[in-house]
Amino acid sequence: MIRCYLDANVLIFLQDKKSPFYNQAVLTIKQLILKRAEIFTSSLSLDEFLQGSLRFSRKTKQEMKGQLKIGLKKIFSLPQFRLVNPPDDTKRHMKVVDIVAKYNLRPRDAYHLFIMQENKIKYLATFDHDFDRVFAKGTVQKFPI
């Protein structure tokens, strides 16, 4: 079974019909559903989704409150959707520094990869080219977008 982690940019584009990446994001989700994939994201991605949605909207937080809740409900209603988190064991988090160095990732992106590895998630749906080095080394696979 395919286990795929959704990066925040997919979540953002999925909610923004004006985005040039909206159709690709919708198609990606449809493909995951057709393949009966397990779909994952983390609170880290949700934080980025909320931040990005607010930034791109140019509206106040109060004005966006309803839209943000609708967006989260859409995400949470995806079939086979689950939230995953890093482990509680603080020693395991030292691995993030190794990931930053090995793949030249920003710490936030390294945390996404760390969460995926800790939860045995082999696919990543993203529009972010910062993960290209990770894909090239075969650490995880890019879900076709």
Automatic annotation (TrEMBL):
SUPFAM superfamilies per record: PIN domain-like (SSF88723)
Gene3D superfamilies attached to this UniProt entry: 5'-nuclease
Signal peptide start-end: none
Pfam families: PIN
Name of the featured protein: PIN domain-containing protein
InterPro entries: PIN-like_dom_sf (IPR029060), PIN_dom (IPR002716), PINc/VapC_TA (IPR052106)
PIN domain ranges (all copies): 5-134
PANTHER family from the UniProt entry: RIBONUCLEASE VAPC13
Top-level lineage group: Bacteria
Record CDD domains: PIN_VapC-like (cd09854)
